[in-house]
């Protein structure tokens, strides 16, 4: 080493040494590993908040007139229920599904997996995290302002979201929501920029694009989606905020009467918001799920001791999904009164996403096929991901057809669809990633027994929660209603609500096991070796946890693809990416 | 695994798909093992990516503009204040002077470089001041943000552009300070180049906004 210091590939600083002070080291750190862990903990906090809100929603649905703990002895009004729906969805989509898989694992492992010492712009990276953190604080603060949290759901459709007098929470609470999302967009854009630049420019010698682990590919594609989508949401948010505060009429139609008062706007279009929102919103669902697909591909290969089946096809499928993802937003708006011809175009494009999705699914099964499967905890969650993705994806094919969607839109069928495919599958991707990388991040193994118990309760539990919802939706139960016990044709569904709520309580309780497992493993877990899973990618060639500059002053050189498992003629059943050819 | 990682050596090959290291102004790779010029390239990549994101932001406004202008019967065409054309010229001139700055810096003509740089800063500030006057003129004529959807979009687009340009002006301000203190060495060249890309883009964006406001009334 020329300077006797850590080798370093940061573009912002030639040689940056490991900081020593507490603040620089753990709080305002520019080290991608620390930032990754910060994102991960932020998502962990957010997921427990979001889950707590869903618990109250389930309580209200099962026992409409019940009095619930910590609710001040009062009953939950329908407006409060809607506020919970809004905040639950928003926190889960933005601060969990968008934050942990990309900001968390991506930040931690992208540089190591491509053999770099840090992200391309470390300071920007730190900024993206703190910006996201501020967004989260602002979002949660919406609960505590006058009127409470907004009630317009995570899609914030106007005119409800554009008129402060439209409901409690639509005043200050809604402003906070928009501002938080705008801040979040800035953080997401900075992060996306950093990921793309890092992937393009910071790869080690020999790390060609086609030698990148699948995880790096998904982080890259996800970042591209983010870079193109979040600017649109930001723009839409600004328009909405102007409608609310300045009196413009972008989204507010004329002649609107709310609470017997004529609203003094004219000529705007609520549908315009829907277009802008879903132009962002559909790519967003892929931003949430793609990283989970990557982790799953990776883990299935490692624990089947086989290369990823059809690596190139997987990469192409992913890019295909990314591209098509920008052309299908209209399938969320079939009932908005769009022309049937437009519907048909959106429908055909939507259904064609089934092709790359199927390619991925078959290739996951192909990866496992005939492998010597090791059923460790990460593998279980990865298989769970595949299962949930199939179950949830299939219902998408129904919803993608306008004639069916006219009926199913805004029913529990949609709730079932997106929870299985986006909500729970993506969360299983995160569980899988946590189980898989925990040894590397913290130098300790997680407890297998607790993990397996947690897996089985959660896996069976989420099916118990969401499968019945398909049926409720087909029967015609609308979504986003606090109570339907007074509606004749829906009243018989009440026992099903009770069943789902019990299942939800069990699943939510089981997440405490996960939390306990993390805390217990951090304190008492057995020490992890450098490569406990006998995997081939670069992060397993360095100590657990890795040193400050990732490679301890050395510069990795890559000679092989990422999945050299069970190669004939090799001594071991895996060959590291940086092992020279003989 | 230690033996699998080769010791640091001059590494000129790029990571596969990357560009060849054609620029060798970064003599010291700082022990990164990355090819020389990586840092410079990363900043360029980052800037282009930022411009893509900014484009999406304005594309969203554009589509809203087009959709909204076709809705209802409340859209009244806005007559553009003539001062806008003068501002456009000023901004175009600033792009030219910035390019002269960059070329002077490359040629090592320090005095010329500083002079062009000052000219750019002044022209940039003049544009923003001109925009401020445009808004004032409109306000004096009773045209405000909420007067009509067309005026809403006028203020929205011009203000968004001005805000982005202010960022560029801040970067130019920083570069000027460094230049006046004779600290604008080769290492800062990347900064100047990247700022120039941004500035030219803002120029193009302005033309685009003008055409949109002018042709799609
Ligand atoms: C073959 C694949 C898929 C098809 C054909 C499909 C189709 C659809 C359609 C047509 C809707 C609109 C339903 C309605 O609101 O009436 C919908 C909603 C939704 N989908 Fe999918 N989908 C697919 C895969 C996915 C994936 C992979 C994700 C997430 C990673 C996802 C997440 C969502 C979400 C979050 C919603 C609901 C948004 C809301 O209204 O709140 N979908 N899907
Ligand atoms: Cu969609």
Outline the fold blueprint.
The complex is a heterodimer of chains A (582) and B (217).
Chain A: H1 22-27, H2 32-62, H3 78-97, H4 99-113, H5 122-141, H6 172-201, H7 214-245, E1 257-258, E2 261-262, H8 270-304, H9 311-324, H10 340-352, H11 354-368, H12 377-399, H13 402-408, H14 412-442, H15 448-475, H16 494-524
Antiparallel strand pairs in A: 1-2
Helix pairs in contact in A: 2-3, 2-4, 2-5, 2-16, 4-6, 4-7, 4-14, 5-6, 6-7, 7-8, 7-9, 8-12, 8-14, 9-11, 11-12, 12-14, 12-15, 14-15, 15-16
Chain B: H1 38-69, H2 83-106, H3 110-140, H4 149-180, H5 189-215
Helix pairs in contact in B: 1-4, 1-5, 2-3, 2-5, 3-4, 4-5
The complex binds protoporphyrin IX containing FE and copper (II) ion.
Copper (II) ion is lined by residues 282, 285, 328, 331-332 of chain A.
Structural description of this entry:
The complex is a heterodimer of chains A (582) and B (217). Chain A is mainly α. Helix content of chain A is 60%, strand content 1%. Chain A contains 16 helices and two strands. Chain A has a two-stranded antiparallel sheet. In chain A, β1 and β2 form a beta hairpin. In chain A, α2 runs antiparallel to α16. The longest helix of chain A is centred in the middle third of the chain and has 35 residues. The N terminus of chain A is likely disordered. With 217 residues, chain B is mainly α. Chain B is 67% helix and 0% strand. The radius of gyration of chain B is 22 Å and the shape is elongated. Chain B starts with 37 loop residues before the first helix and ends with a helix. Chains A and B meet through α6, α7 and α8 of A and α1 and α4 of B. The complex binds protoporphyrin IX containing FE and copper (II) ion (CU).
Sketch the major β-sheet of chain B: none
Q: What structural class results from the helix and strand content of chain A?
A: mainly alpha
SSE string of chain A? HHHHHHHEEHHHHHHHHH
Strand order of the largest sheet of chain A: 1-2
Fraction in helix of chain B = 55-70%
Instruction: Give the uncertain stretches of chain A in residue-range form.
Output: 1-15
> What is the makeup of the main sheet of chain A?
2 strands, antiparallel
- Kindly state the percentage of residues in helix of chain A: 55-70%
**Estimated share of beta-strand residues of chain A:** under 5%
């Amino acid at each position: 080493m020329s300077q006797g210091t850590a080798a370093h590939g940061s573009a912002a600083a030639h040689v940056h040494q490991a900081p020593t002070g507490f603040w620089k080291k753990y709080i305002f750190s520019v080290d991608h590993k620390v930032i990754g862990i910060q994102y991960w903990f932020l998502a962990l906090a957010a997921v427990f908040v979001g889950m707590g809100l869903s618990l109250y929603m389930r309580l209200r649905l099962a026992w409409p007139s019940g009095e619930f703990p910590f609710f001040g002895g009062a009953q939950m009004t329908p407006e409060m229920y809607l506020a919970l729906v809004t905040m639950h969805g928003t926190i889960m989509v933005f601060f969990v599904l968008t934050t942990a898989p990309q900001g968390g694992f991506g930040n931690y492992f992208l540089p190591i997996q491509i053999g770099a010492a840090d992200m391309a712009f470390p300071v920007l990276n730190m900024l993206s995290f703190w910006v996201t953190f501020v967004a989260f604080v602002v979002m949660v603060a919406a609960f505590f302002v006058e009127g409470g949290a907004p009630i317009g759901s995570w899609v914030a459709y106007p005119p409800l979201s554009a008129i402060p007098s439209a409901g409690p929470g639509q005043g200050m609470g809604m402003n906070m929501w928009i501002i938080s999302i705008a801040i979040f967009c800035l953080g997401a854009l900075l992060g996306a920029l950093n990921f793309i630049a890092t992937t393009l420019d910071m790869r080690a010698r020999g790390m060609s694009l086609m030698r990148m682990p699948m995880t790096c590919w998904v982080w890259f594609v996800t970042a591209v989606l983010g870079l193109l989508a979040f600017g649109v949401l930001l723009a839409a948010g600004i328009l909405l905020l102007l409608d609310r505060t300045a009196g413009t009429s972008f989204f507010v139609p004329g002649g609107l009467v709310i609470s017997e008062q004529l609203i003094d706007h004219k000529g705007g279009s609520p549908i315009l918001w829907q277009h802008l929102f879903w132009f962002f919103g559909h790519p967003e669902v892929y931003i949430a799920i793609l990283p989970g697909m990557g982790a799953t591909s990776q883990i299935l290969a490692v624990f089947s001791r086989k290369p990823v089946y059809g690596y190139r096809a997987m990469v192409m499928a992913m890019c295909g999904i990314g591209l098509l993802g920008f052309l299908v937003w209209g399938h969320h708006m079939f009932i908005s009164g769009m022309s049937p011809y437009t519907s048909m175009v959106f429908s055909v494009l939507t259904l064609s996403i089934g092709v790359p999705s199927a390619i991925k699914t078959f290739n996951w099964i192909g990866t496992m096929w005939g492998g010597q499967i090791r059923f460790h905890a990460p593998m279980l969650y990865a298989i769970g991901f595949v299962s949930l993705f199939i179950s949830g994806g299939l219902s998408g094919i129904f919803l993608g057809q306008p004639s069916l969607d006219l009926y199913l839109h805004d029913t529990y069928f949609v709730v079932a669809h997106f929870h299985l495919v986006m909500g729970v599958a993506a969360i299983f991707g995160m569980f899988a990633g946590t189980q898989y990388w925990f040894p590397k991040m913290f130098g300790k193994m997680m407890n297998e027994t607790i993990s397996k118990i947690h897996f089985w309760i959660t896996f069976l539990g989420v099916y118990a929660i969401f499968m019945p919802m398909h049926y409720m939706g087909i029967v015609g139960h609308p979504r986003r209603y606090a109570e339907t016990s007074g509606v004749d044709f829906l009243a018989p569904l009440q026992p099903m609500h009770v069943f789902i709520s019990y299942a939800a309580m069990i699943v939510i309780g089981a997440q405490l096991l996960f939390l306990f497992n993390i805390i217990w493993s951090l304190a008492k877990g057995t020490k992890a070796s450098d490569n406990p899973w006998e995997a081939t990618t670069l992060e397993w060639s360095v100590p657990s946890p890795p040193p400050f500059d990732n490679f301890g002053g050395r510069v990795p050189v890559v000679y092989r693809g990422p999945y050299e498992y069970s190669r004939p003629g090799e001594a071991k059943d895996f060959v590291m990416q940086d092992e020279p050819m003989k | 695994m230690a033996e699998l990682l080769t010791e640091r050596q001059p590494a000129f090959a790029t990571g596969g798909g990357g560009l060849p290291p054609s620029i060798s102004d970064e003599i010291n790779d700082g022990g990164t093992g990355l090819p020389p010029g990586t840092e410079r390239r990363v900043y360029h990549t980052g800037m282009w990516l930022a411009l893509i994101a900014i484009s999406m932001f304005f594309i969203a406004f554009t589509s809203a503009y087009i959709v909204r202008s076709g809705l209802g019967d409340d859209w009244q065409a806005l007559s553009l204040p003539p001062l806008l054309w003068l501002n456009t010229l000023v901004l175009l001139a600033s792009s030219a002077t910035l390019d002269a700055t960059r070329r002077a810096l490359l040629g090592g003509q320090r005095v010329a470089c500083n002079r062009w740089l000052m000219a750019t800063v002044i022209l940039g500030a003049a544009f923003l001041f001109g925009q401020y006057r445009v808004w004032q003129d409109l306000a004096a004529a009773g045209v405000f943000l909420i007067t009509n959807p067309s005026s809403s979009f006028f203020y929205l687009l011009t203000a968004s552009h001005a805000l982005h340009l202010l960022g560029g002006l801040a970067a130019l301000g920083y570069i000027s300070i460094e230049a006046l203190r004779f600290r604008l060495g080769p290492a800062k060249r990347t900064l100047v180049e990247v700022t120039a890309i941004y500035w030219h883009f803002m120029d193009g964006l302005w033309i685009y906004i003008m055409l949109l406001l002018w042709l799609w009334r």
